[in-house]
Amino acid sequence: MGYLGFPTTFESALTDTDLLDRISTLEPHWTNLDHACTSGSGGAIYAQLSGSNINIDGSTFDRCSATQPGNGGALSLYQQTATSIISITNSLFKDCKTLSGSSSTYGWGGGIFLFTSISSNALSSSNLLMNDLAFIGCQSIIGGHNIHIRSPNTKETGLAISSNNLLTVNGTT
């Protein structure tokens, strides 16, 4: 069993938003999520963060998938407030994908889908940090084969992420 009693190989065990609302910090202690990850959104982890944290370090997401109308083959994260912290570091996303389904408006982010409601001038390494990530063979139906980030002002968010070094990728194939 993994952290908080979740099995280390699971089928969308972390999709219960009611459970996630009751914990302030989610720090998965497993290192390899292999093939057993399939869900509507976030094949391995789906989280709506409002004043809570998620910290993933040194993990491998292998063959995770999300089926439309979902997003995020491995991770689907919704950062609703500036007090919500997302930290994903030293992690590998291998052969993760979004799969065809009934909707042509979903299927973003083969490895990671992130929607942040935070204004671009409030983004910093204290609330969003995705460093030393690697992606191998990830695919999406719509766009963002490795990672897809959306926000109310995607251009300004992208500039803030770039200028503040909030995202680094060490390899893709």
TrEMBL record:
Domain of life: Eukaryota
Protein name, as recorded: Right handed beta helix domain-containing protein
InterPro entries given in the database record: Pectin_lyase_fold/virulence
